[in-house]
Amino acid sequence: MQSINQFTSQNELFLVPLYILLIFTISSIIKTFYIKKYDEYNYFNYGLLFKLLGVTGFCIIYLFYYEGGDTVNYFLGTQAIGNLIEQDIEKGLAVLFNTDSYFNSWQSFNAGTGFPPHYMWKDPNTFSVSRLSVPLYFLGAKSFFITSFLTACFSYIGIWKLYRLFNTLYTGNSRIFAYLILFLPSLIFWGGGVMKDSYVLGATCWITSNFYHIFIIRKKLFRNFIFMLLNAFLIINIKAYIIVSLIPGMLLWINSAYLKNIKSSLIKVFVFPVIFGFIVLSAFYISQNLSSVIGVYGDMDSAIQQAQVIQEDLLREDQYGGNNYNIGELDGSFGGLISVAPLAIFTALFRPLFWEIGSPTMVLSVIENTIMIIFYHYDFSSYFSY
Fold first, then answer.
1. Fewest C-beta in 10 Å: which of 31, 90, 104, 202?
2. 343 phi and psi, to 5 degrees?
3. Do 142 and 259 have their domain in common?
4. How many angstroms separate the CA atoms of 115 and 112, rounded?
5. Can you give the three-state secondary structure of 253-318, one letter per residue?
6. Can you tell me the distance from the alpha carbon of 375 to that of 305, in angstroms, rounded to the nearest whole number?
7. Residues 288, 289, 294, 298: what is their CA dihedral angle, to the nearest 10 degrees?
């Protein structure tokens, strides 16, 4: 329990309330500034409150129920980099920015700095979470809980951007969108803390808003372009396949936006194949040019092989116990991928189910997924009744 005790010191008890007060002071200023222009800012502080409650529960469960886990290990990696920066700034910055310097090595760490978990260090995408958390670590007074709060705040910025976007596109539904986006249990619990999910969730939601401003309404171009690049960089360095999944939807969004501006149905008939062809060529060009950046997800064959490797790894009960889903055998072919797609999509959207509860943390997910199934069933029933 020694590693747990260092995260619950007396300094934490003093600093945590102070930082919470500071966070909500800033959020109240933001709300006061925008509330006269945008009614949805009524939910700004409430959404942030739920986010911080979620990350608090997340940290407590990992510290006292699991007595460790990934979020603790990510923080230990962050702490090791922070200590190295204070001990030897040249070595510390080499590790922080992942440079080609010989200082960016395991040997730069020592007993004084502490060592990051080796399984994280040897995976650049995984260890990038520890690197990204270093500024928040120093900003958060080197506190585990406060660093987690600040990570949750970053995630919340992106979620709020997506919430604002939905309110812009579909006005008059701010309360419904608050329930579906700001107060969704999965996003509140898993989208906070020092984890891959927190950074990627925030960046994915934010980049969607950036895309809308740049390519759909073409406003505030410079600012959104800069943030789009930063968010893309963050996603690519943590979970590159998410960029691959975003590209088709974004290109179709452009297609829909441009066709909507054409009033004549006859012109639409002739223009649609041209735009669609351009989108297909653009998708191919983008994927080819991103292949060197996104690694194994840069082409179909290697992406399928990677999916096969991940599936086989997740089925190892010696490592993960029974908390896994067998969606069928991936044979490495495109046809095999299509054959398991329906169950894979259902699993991603609606599982775990009631009889698949394997731990207390899965209960909220089960309740949330059951409600989603009911709503999806209602929507499809209404659709086919016409």
1. 90
2. -65, -35
3. no
4. 9
5. HHHHHHHHCCCCHHHHHHHHHHHHHHHHHHHHHHHHHHHHHHHHHHCHHHHHHHHHHHHHHHCCHH
6. 35
7. 10
Quick one: DSSP state of residue 357? -
Q: Tens digit of pLDDT for each residue in 2-57?
A: 456 677 777 777 899 999 999 999 999 999 999 999 999 999 999 999 999 999 99
CA distance 355 to 89: 52
The position carrying tokens 């906070």 is 192
Residues 34 and 103 in one domain: yes
Q: How far apart are CA 35 and CA 103, in angstroms?
A: 49
| Angle between helices 144-169 and 44-60 in degrees, nearest 10 | 140
Contact yes or no for 141/152 (Cβ under 8 A): no
The total of structural domains in the chain comes to: 2
Task: Provide the residue range defining the domain that includes 136.
Answer: 2-239
The length of the chain in residues reads 386
For residue 257, give both structure tokens.
């936006």
The Cα–Cα gap between 159 and 345 comes to 23
Q: What is the pTM of this model?
A: 0.84
